[in-house]
Amino acid sequence: MTALKYGEGDYSYWHRALRGEINKSEMNDGNMHAGFYRMRRKDGPDDAVSYFWHGSNLVCVVNGVAMKGDVVWTSCCDNAVSHEDYQSRIINGRWPNDHEMAAKSNRAPDDDSMEGVTARLEDLEREAKALIDAGPAQDQNNADRASDLANMIAEIEKRVNTIHKKEKEPSLIAGRIVDRRWFPLRDRAATAKQEIKAKVVTPFLVQLRRDAEAEADKARELGVEQYLEQPKIGAGSIKRTVALRTKVSAKIVDYDALINCVKHIVEVRGLVQRLADTACRGGNPLPGTVKIETEIAT
After folding, report:
1. Is the pTM of this model over 0.70?
2. Which residue in 25, 41, 163, 267 has the most C-beta neighbors within 10 A?
């Protein structure tokens, strides 16, 4: 991740605290400063505290939850941490120097457990909500912070995809083994069924229908149609009878007329839009389109 680019004027206390240059006289509840801090807890991982500027306001967030800065400050002002350590606590649920067994003994959930990932995402969501509620970034510091937060959420998204794939893989492997065992036999049966119907039954039934239609035409000519018994057009004496079924499909003979008819259908418009977007991205806009470039944060 890209490190935050803080101005020395706004974050000088934090920078000096990281270097161990802070006097105790500066640590009071009326003298809060922007930066990242660690607040001790008796049970569970220490809290991750962040103070940042939004315009002229100094905002305080603890584990992703907005808090009153003056209530928290004196409990964390003497324990500044790097932004990387802060991110680690938010993403992984523990500080880099916390021993994994110690974190588990404090009832911290496994990193890749549903509870652990959910808890970290909820922390980030709360912090994101605080930034969103504050409105568009007013300076580079806040834009950097929001961008870093989005990247941290993207890490959670990536981790969820990885965990999901790992957890699902044994089932997929087992399913593919079953598929390889049975699908060839299924496909052989389907091929044999289709072949015998197409080459043996269908020609016979087609001819049977033609003969019946010819006999019906002759009966109409003689005026005895009402006495003609309708023949059975089918085959088979056990279970399912095989019969002729009319398959209906369209042969397009005038594309322009067809497109003009269906151009107002939502699905058609969506397909056309996707084709136009692809062409524009490839540098070859289609006739009737204009290339539009929209700036978005990624």
Report:
1. no
2. 163
